[in-house]
Amino acid sequence: MAKLYFNYSTMNAGKSTVLLQASHNYRERGMQTYLLTAQFDRRAGEGRIASRIGIGSDADTFGPGEDLYAKLAARLDQGPVACVFVDEAQFLEKQQVWQLARAVDDLDVPVMCYGLRVDFQGELFPGSAALLALSDEMREVRTICHCGKKATMVVRMGGDGKALREGAQVQIGGNETYVSLCRRHWREAIGDRPSTTG
């Protein structure tokens, strides 16, 4: 029975690596997968999912207002798909998460979404909030803070090397822009906690 999965974490936890490995496992066994990523995330090139460790794959894209149920149905009309993989799932709109859920239920295709849970201000992304509400299964892809504790938050760094507290929720960037931290060190970075050593 098909399910909707949400694999979430902070920045630089290896979500894209896990997605690409899972897709590879299907393809190695002769099964087709369908990969989707956010249209405006062009860090690896348009329509490409890439990992910091150097692996990548071409993908279709999704954009604002696009009907993902119709997109998946059209892809399935071309031939069987063992699993759909969605990278940068935090950028999905609420209605698009519902469309993916309907595809799971009505088209009987598993959909595995990978994305951030919260933004640099500690707020849920709309797509992530919908996935947390609708997913059949959720898995945390773990990464660590500089102190060794599990990182659950992310800060956006300004040009002066200090954590930003305001700004647009979406700003594409990588290691030069974002740092994953535990909650305690995130609070310290944004000035919500006195600085400590450790």
Automatic annotation (TrEMBL):
Annotated binding of Zn(2+), by residue: C145, C147, C182, H185
GO biological process: DNA biosynthetic process; thymidine metabolic process
Superkingdom of this protein's organism: Bacteria
EC number: 2.7.1.21
Subcellular location: Cytoplasm
Reactions performed catalytically: thymidine + ATP = dTMP + ADP + H(+)
Keywords carried by this UniProt record: ATP-binding, Cytoplasm, DNA synthesis, Kinase, Metal-binding, Nucleotide-binding, Transferase, Zinc
Residues holding ATP: S9, T10, M11, N12, A13, G14, K15, S16, D87, E88, A89, Q90
Subunit note: Homotetramer.
Protein name in UniProt: Thymidine kinase
Species assigned in the record: Thalassobius vesicularis
